[in-house]
């Protein structure tokens, strides 16, 4: 049939001009919203040379913030990997009332303001609460200490691993696990030899996303940490402190380092995708 009999096809046909216009809008938007800010951050960090940038990162406050951020990330990410696997397993392998509600709860940190999450932690574990008062009296404070920062970070980053795993585990189904159990395999062996190989890439992606968010979290951490310089100030909080004190080189140097961590995470994810493209395709087809 001729195109005259297909007005819908003619109306939806993409012209070269429309194609290039869409490309220009996409590239321009990315350049303006992502590229330009990153360039400015690195340019400002190096505005007085490499020596000044390195010296600002070598200061006691900067070093303390870097160590604390890496420590919080090293604690929160494995916890969320375990929680994410458990939540995804429970949601996808069992049928029960309230499953939709549980999935909504998993997504809750995406919709709740991090500041609100931080305030909830303060109300639950602050010195004026029953639990928090007892913990403080016992010498184990939560709020304005590292445990509170870990709690806030775990809450904010919890959905990333679970949300990567749930679709993959739904597609995987239960047949392979049930067959392995029928053959006499233990639950741990079924998970290690059947489930984990099928979800490893989703688990890795969720972990990388969780890592990037954990290092950059500000709102919830700012509420529960107390912003104590050299003790509970993470990298994002230290950036704010430096900026408010007009230490622009120090602020942008720290911001550049934090951006570098995020870019490293993204590059690692991309490299793994390229190196294991065949395995990824097989997992997705599965």
TrEMBL record:
What PROSITE patterns does UniProt report for this protein, alphabetically? ABC_TM1 (PS50928)
> Which lineage do the record's taxonomy fields give for this organism?
Bacteria, Pseudomonadati, Pseudomonadota, Alphaproteobacteria, Rhodobacterales
- GO MF annotation: an example: ABC-type sulfate transporter activity
* UniProt protein name: Sulfate ABC transporter permease subunit CysW
Q: Does the keyword DNA damage apply?
A: no
Question: Which keywords does this chain's UniProt record carry?
Answer: Membrane, Sulfate transport, Transmembrane, Transmembrane helix, Transport
Tell me the CDD domains matching this sequence: TM_PBP2 (cd06261)
Give compartment(s): Cell membrane
Residue ranges of domain ABC transmembrane type-1 in the record: 66-267
User: What gene codes for this chain?
Assistant: cysW
GO CC annotations, alphabetized = plasma membrane
- KW Repressor (keyword) present: no
Assembly mode: The complex is composed of two ATP-binding proteins (CysA), two transmembrane proteins (CysT and CysW) and a solute-binding protein (CysP).
- Show which residues constitute the signal peptide: none
Which Pfam family name is an example for this entry? BPD_transp_1
* Residue ranges of the TM segments: 20-45, 65-90, 102-127, 139-162, 202-226, 246-268
Q: Which InterPro entries match?
A: CysW_permease, MetI-like, MetI-like_sf, Sulph_transpt2
What is the topology of this protein in the membrane according to its UniProt annotation? Answer: Multi-pass membrane protein
Q: What does this protein do?
A: Part of the ABC transporter complex CysAWTP (TC 3.A.1.6.1) involved in sulfate/thiosulfate import. Probably responsible for the translocation of the substrate across the membrane.
């Amino acid at each position: 049939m001729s195109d005259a009999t297909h007005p819908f096809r003619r109306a939806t046909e993409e012209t070269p001009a429309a194609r290039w216009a869409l490309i220009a809008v996409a590239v321009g938007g990315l350049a303006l919203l992502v590229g330009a800010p990153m360039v400015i951050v690195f340019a400002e960090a190096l505005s007085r040379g490499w020596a000044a940038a390195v010296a600002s990162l070598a200061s006691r406050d900067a070093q303390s913030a870097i160590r604390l951020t890496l420590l919080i990330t090293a604690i929160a990410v494995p916890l969320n990997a375990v929680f994410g696997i458990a939540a995804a397993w429970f949601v996808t392998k069992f049928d029960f009332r309230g499953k939709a509600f549980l999935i909504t709860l998993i997504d809750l940190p995406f919709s709740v303001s991090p500041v609100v999450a931080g305030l909830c932690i303060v109300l639950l574990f602050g010195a004026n609460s029953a639990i928090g008062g007892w913990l403080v009296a016992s010498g184990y404070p939560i709020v304005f200490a590292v445990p509170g920062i870990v709690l806030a970070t775990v809450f904010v980053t919890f959905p990333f691993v679970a949300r990567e795993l749930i679709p993959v585990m739904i597609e995987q189904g239960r047949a392979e696990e049930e067959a392995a159990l029928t053959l006499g395999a233990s639950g741990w062996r079924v998970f290690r030899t059947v489930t984990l190989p099928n979800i490893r890439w989703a688990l890795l992606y969720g972990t990388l996303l969780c890592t990037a968010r954990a290092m950059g979290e500000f709102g919830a951490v700012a509420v529960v940490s107390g912003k104590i310089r050299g003790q509970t100030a993470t990298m994002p909080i230290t950036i704010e402190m430096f900026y408010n004190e007009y230490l622009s080189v120090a602020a942008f140097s720290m911001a550049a380092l934090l951006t570098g961590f995020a870019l490293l995470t993204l590059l690692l994810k991309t490299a793994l995708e390229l190196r294991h493209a065949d395995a990824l395709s097989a997992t997705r087809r599965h």
